[in-house]
Amino acid sequence: MAVHPTFDRRRFLGLLGAASALPVVAACGSSIGGSTGAPATGGGGGTVKVGLVVPQSGVYAALGTDMQRGWELWLADNGQRFGDYTVETVIADEGETPQTGVPAVQKVLQNGGVDVVVGLVNSATALGVRDLLTESKKLLVVTNAGAEAVTSTSRTPYIWRTSFTNGQVAAAMGTHLAQSGFSEGVYAIAPDYAAGTEVITAFTKAFESGGGRVVGSAKTPFGTTSDYQPFLTGIQSSGARAAFCFYSGAEAINFVKQYAQFGLASTIPLYGSGFLTEGNVLPQQGDAALGVQTTLHYTDQLDNPANKAFVQAYTAKYGEAPSCFSVQTWDAANVLDRALASATGLDGDSLATALGTVGAINDSPRGAWTFENQTPRQNIYLRRVDNSGGALVNAVVQDLGPQSQPAA
Amino acid sequence: MTAVDAPAVPGGTAAVSPRVPRGRDGLVAAAVLVVLAAAPLFLAPFATTTLARILVFALFAVSLDLLVGVTGLPSLGHAAYFGSGAYAAGWVSINVTAEAPVPLLVGAAVGAVAAALTGWITVRTGGVFFLMLTLAIGETVQQVANTWESVTGGANGLTGVPAVRAGGAPLANAGFVYWYVLAVFVLGFVLVWLVARSPFGAALRGIRDNEPRMRAIGYPTALYKYGVFVIAGGVAGVAGSLLVAQQRLVTPADLGFLTASLALLAVIIGGAGSLWGACLGAALVILIRDALGPGLGGHGTLLLGIVFVLVVYLLPRGAAGLRLRRRSPS
């Protein structure tokens, strides 16, 4: 009788019931009483269950792909095992914001019953899950999120990091520029949000303590700026000898292109934090990026045996070069493997103690590094975008030596 | 609880609203409440947490429904009041006290004040203009949250919020937090329900159906709309304080466009004008986003979109429409 293919109430409720049954099936138990009711997984010592929480949707999805590949490559090369343990990976979508990231971590912890959580791109998510991990006494290895607070003011024994800190990467550039003839004037520009502020603060501090002078700075509205012309005019008229910037993703593509189109690239050389030209943004920037110099803890052009083998295996398997995001997650597997060799259990306390004793990680593609306050003390490289046989690469200009997380 | 929606069918209002609420619906409501209250005893922590998240979002959706469904003001910036309340409750919990009614009252007050400050402009418009104006306000408030780092923590959000304390003891356990959320949710829901079925609510529905006529009869419609805007803002602020109690974290995403549009989605899925429908819609949105989404390999949003299209196509009056259809002989 109806022209419209309508549901009746019974069918609708059935559908709702079916949808809600899915998450509920594994949800029985009780939420009252002891909070340490997490089930012991596997047969005691046999299996370690890892929750890999990386973005599979949203603007960071490309980073998530690189991270997942780094993780899977290490496991494939090592027989899916950490020492005596078989590794079982549960992947969850971090999404873009803590609104999706926090429930994803919660889900792998409470529903997936994982022993360790690995991943997290977004700093707000990494900071937001702190209490969750501390209260459940589980280990989190952060493989991107670069906020200083994760391993300084908000530090907890349960959160370790195998990536970088925003300030660490920027401070190395500050020291370098002060020593290389630009001390009389640099212009600093970054998006107006927490990470941008951290980068500019650390850069300015290092640059000024090396005798440099910041002649101007600007904060561009985060995520909404697509025309940088007013800011580029400001750089041009500031009398700066060089410009330092921090952008990533779509903003990095726009900024680098417009900087070149504006004709500034030839008069005021562009420097930046490495994410400006890292990963999949570089091919899209094209020739506009040529000559841009950045600092980062990795480039696929590094000349060491571990990196050569890594790049070759990665490229053979996935058909494109690895990024720093791949290496950061590859190293998470690498350090967990070392920690499990000496850990007395899979709880956060045992694993944190074991991670504290892993010493130098000397087979990493990024070069040898060590944990210092639960975050890497690692070499930072000065890189320049070059054309190598038709493809743009971040060629190594100089090794700026090992750097710590800058003091607050 | 059901009479809020005035069907377009002639005679529908008269036939449905007066006779339904008493007997059977009261029983259904009591049964639902008992099941909800007992849930933490049977559910594992993740399911309990998800259910708490649903209740938080449902109260937020119900407050939006007061604007969209009852008064006919489609808002895309309602998350601004939800988020303001959340930030205020979080800030108070960190810097002053986390003792039970305090964060709640502060959240409600800040949500209502924020709505009072901005509402005076917005309620003078309607339809698409109202939609765009509220969107602009929402974006502005999000920008403030993003840049006012000393108070909001900027893009990294307000973290380290202590657990709500009741009678001096912190509610550390997922089950106790859930009961706190449930208790406040019921209070908030009843408040909105009372507003919607009061003479004030009847006037609001009149404004929704024919504002010039209401004005001609002598109702100060702008004042009525302003009043409901402030009430909705206050209830959204209460929901915001529950958000903090539940996830102990607030970020600019919580007062952004995406949150506001998800709430509008929940209201539409549930059937605008029906308060319990908005709760069903909120449940569906949160289940897909938080419980199913993380395991879908990045396709959680896609599933949400498909559900939305299906609902609009198959249930043009939302989940609440089903009930009315059943009553009318087909």
Describe this structure in words.
The complex is a heterodimer of chains A (408) and B (330). Chain A is of the alpha/beta class. Chain A has two domains: 196 residues, Rossmann fold; 154 residues, Response regulator (Rossmann fold, 3-Layer(aba) Sandwich). Helices cover 39% and strands 21% of the residues of chain A. In chain A, the strands form two sheets. In chain A, strands 7, 8, 9, 10, 11, 12, 13 and 14 form an eight-stranded mixed sheet that branches. Chain A has a six-stranded mixed sheet with strand order 2-3-1-4-5-6. In chain A, strand 2 and strand 3 form a beta hairpin. In chain A, helix 2 crosses helix 12, helix 6 runs parallel beside helix 7 and helix 12 crosses helix 13. The termini of chain A are far apart. The N terminus of chain A is likely disordered. Chain B has 330 residues and is mainly alpha-helical. Chain B has a single domain, classed as ABC transporter involved in vitamin B12 uptake, BtuC, CATH 1.10.3470. Chain B is 73% helix and 1% strand. Chain B has a two-stranded antiparallel ribbon with strand order 1-2. In chain B, strand 1 and strand 2 form a beta hairpin. In chain B, helix 4 packs parallel to helix 6 and helix 12 crosses helix 13. Chain B is globular. The two termini of chain B are 24 Å apart.
Write the layout of secondary structure elements.
The complex is a heterodimer of chains A (408) and B (330).
Chain A: H1 9-25, E1 47-54, H2 61-77, E2 81-82, E3 85-93, H3 98-111, E4 116-119, H4 123-128, H5 130-136, E5 139-142, E6 159-161, H6 166-179, E7 186-191, H7 194-209, E8 214-220, H8 229-237, E9 242-245, H9 249-261, E10 270-273, H10 281-285, E11 293-296, H11 305-318, H12 324-342, H13 348-355, E12 370-372, E13 375-388, E14 391-403
Parallel strand pairs in A: 1-3, 1-4, 4-5, 5-6, 7-8, 7-9, 9-10, 10-11
Antiparallel strand pairs in A: 2-3, 11-13, 12-13, 13-14
Chain B: H1 12-16, H2 23-42, H3 45-71, H4 79-95, H5 101-122, H6 127-147, H7 149-152, E1 165-166, E2 169-170, H8 174-197, H9 199-209, H10 211-217, H11 221-247, H12 257-270, H13 275-292, H14 300-314, H15 318-327
Antiparallel strand pairs in B: 1-2
Helix pairs in contact in B: 2-8, 3-8, 3-11, 3-12, 3-13, 4-5, 4-6, 4-11, 5-11, 8-9, 8-11, 9-10, 9-11, 12-13, 12-15, 13-14
